[in-house]
Amino acid sequence: MIRVEEALERALALASPLPVEKVPLASASGRVMARPAVATRDQPPFDASAMDGYAVIGDPPAGATFAVVGEAAAGHGWQGGLEPGQAVRIFTGAPVPPEATRVVLQEDVTVEAGVIRLASAATGGAHIRPKGQDFRAGDSLSPRRLRPNDLALLAAMNIPEVTVTRRPVVALIATGDELVMPGEVPRPDQIIASNSFALKALVEAEGAEGRLLPIARDTEDELRTVLDLASDADLIVTIGGASVGDHDLVGKVAAEMGLERAFYKIAMRPGKPLMAGRLRDVPMLGLPGNPVSSIVCAHLFLLPMLRAMLGLPAGPAPMRRAELAVALPPNPARAHYMRARLTPREGLPLIEPFGSQDSALLRLLAQADALLVRPVDDPAREPGEAMDYISLNA
Ligand SMILES: Nc1nc2c(c(=O)[nH]1)N[C@H]1C(S)=C(S)[C@@H](COP(=O)(O)OP(=O)(O)OC[C@H]3O[C@@H](n4cnc5c(N)ncnc54)[C@H](O)[C@@H]3O)O[C@H]1N2
Ligand code: MOO
Fold first, then answer.
1. Beta strands in 227-358 (DSSP E)
2. Any idea where the MoaB/Mog domain is (predicted)?
């Protein structure tokens, strides 16, 4: 059994960034930019008024009057010139006439017969947004996972298409004679396939496409057939059949199909029988079948692999700190990822692992906010100690 850190390194070595493609800006939310985007224009492209009011020259005192000689609205600049003693009616977003040095707010003037009079001295802000204040032509946005705010910036930069990394297609293969899909009527000795649904949601939240393949029954032929169906995926994920039982066929069948194994079995709880490798050029992750084990392994291995394929910085699932609520005995030779509840407080949140850590309990997993991380050979812990955890709510 190898350690989690070593296993992750080997898993990440299987995953390389996928080719890039161009997508319209309107479809780019959540996608991962593959190259910097470079602005082709200044924003604003002219000195722009920040307020509705009057553009004037100088710092006039209270009582000063100006003849209104024209109007500048957003999208309609004033071309007629401006002299001292004159004002141009102006609206937010309009180009400020080049001669003007400030905009006075309409609330600060009285208007009579085309003449404005200042109620108070025009001091303080000029209410002009200088050309290029937001960004200039040539400024760039560095590659990142695109959030809605980033899309607004790219649009303002006049970038209609973004170069992004292709979404990894993840084939999800549940295995086992005991499984039927939700909505079907199981025999008395069957259960409902549940893991694939969490895994599909997890990979899609990460920016990949999850493809649910038919459940592979516990025969070598059927498993081979479904693995063949997955050969055009970017990542093959099997669920179950990873352990040592007579019906655990994934390792055997994959090996016969040419799996170059990167590892099998790790010093981790839950998730000991995890395997990974390359099957005919496609990276493969063999998750254990126990529901909690498969989902915990997805957080620790599958999501980092997807981040690597998306060209994002890839490494371990991000860790945070919390204060332990209860005493814990020493942790033996397998790192333990304990399902736990977090209570937010001032300072570090409080973390309390559930009493039962059975890897079949989905109801407890649904109540869990976090995985409390206990490294290999972690000593006994006292309440109040600061510990690492991985968020399940992110
Ligand atoms: N003699 C040993 N037995 C087991 C060991 C071991 O070291 N020696 N390891 C245990 C551990 S730890 C785990 S984890 C499980 C994992 O085994 P498999 O990956 O072979 O998983 P299965 O046997 O196929 O299934 C385990 C369990 O999970 C249920 N399951 C499977 N797939 C799904 C699914 N898609 N949705 C919902 N539930 C699923 C399945 O019905 C079983 O109950 O092995 C231990 N045994
Ligand atoms: O590793 Mo198994 O995942 O403990 O249940």
1. 235-239, 260-264, 268-269, 275-279, 282-287, 320-324, 335-343, 350-353
2. 171-308
Residues with CB under 6 A from ligand 2: 269-272, 288, 290, 293, 359
Looking at the fold, whether 149 and 70 belong to one and the same domain comes out as no
Whether residue 110 contacts residue 85, with contact meaning beta carbons closer than 8 Å, is answered with no
**Residue 114's CATH number:** 2.170.190.11
Do 74 and 52 contact (CB within 8 A), yes or no? Answer: no
**Count of domains in the chain?**
4
CA proximity to 274, closest of 317, 241, 316: 241
- Token pair recorded at residue 18: 């996928």
Pocket test for ligand 1, best of 178, 290, 292 (most atoms within 8 A of CB): 290
Under 8 Å between Cβ of 157 and 41: yes
CA distance 198 to 40: 42
Please give the distance of CA 153 from its chain centroid, rounded to a whole number. Answer: 18
C-beta separation of 218 from 206 below 8 A: no
Residue 246 — very low, low, confident or very high, per pLDDT cuts 50/70/90? Answer: confident
What Å distances lie between residue 217 and 187, 209, 249, 273, CA to CA?
A: 15, 24, 10, 19
pTM for the model stands at: 0.92
Same domain flag for 142 and 231: no
pLDDT in tens, 146-168: 999 999 999 999 999 999 999 99
3-state secondary structure of 367: helix
Summarised one tens digit per residue, pLDDT across range 44-53 is: 999 999 999 9
